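Form 7-S
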Amino acid sequence: MTTMIDFHSHILPGLDDGAANITEAAAMARILSDAGFSEVCCTPHRISGCYDADNGTVGKKTEELRKSINALGIDILLHPGSEYYLDEFLLGGLEECVTYRETRFLLVEISNNMTVEFIREACYRIRCRGFIPVIAHPERCKLFDFPPPSKNGLREWFFKVQGSRFMVTKQTPDVEHPALNGSLLDYLIEIGCRFQANIGSFAGIYGEGVRRRAVISLQEGLYSYLGSDAHSSRNLAEWLDKGLREIERCVGYEGLQNLRV
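Output:
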């Protein structure tokens, strides 16, 4: 049976602007399970001075939720994690970060208010420390200049460079600083970043412009992972179904499965 993973979810109750309580979190878990997901990465916001839940708190909340949903007969595996805001505070505390399932993959959120120069330098420094930034929902970031669809797009080059989905990396890999005359998206691809798509983007919940950028990025082979980015159970089942069907329409059943494992 194929493992289906939600790589981005605000399901842990009371830690950020996600699930308000354990009842809401359990409702979200049931919907995700019914949609076919067998594992969920619990990734509350980690923003210094705003959402500051430490690793111990995230781990404790994950275990509490696991016991609650198991008691309700919801068969879904939870992994502790975080969605890290890309800023100077993140760079100062990288070794304390919670990564994807004991890998070096780090879920990172980029704000539209950041400068391109800071994003380049910060992601480069993260790579030089042996971590691989997974850029959350790039289709929602206005700083990325998405190309129009092309014959081969990014797919052939991107997957040739990236290799396996959970590749083993050295603690201090040799990362060359690429030329700065390309787009921000080109730069992040070249230094080895990964990209996570929001399923809701394909359902149009963030607007038609975001939906179009998500479809282009999907067809060009940009994404490595899918996430619900769910904050509540409200309308979750409806837009999960719509978004997953749209993804399958664009890349087929096999392409959809490749993004969910």
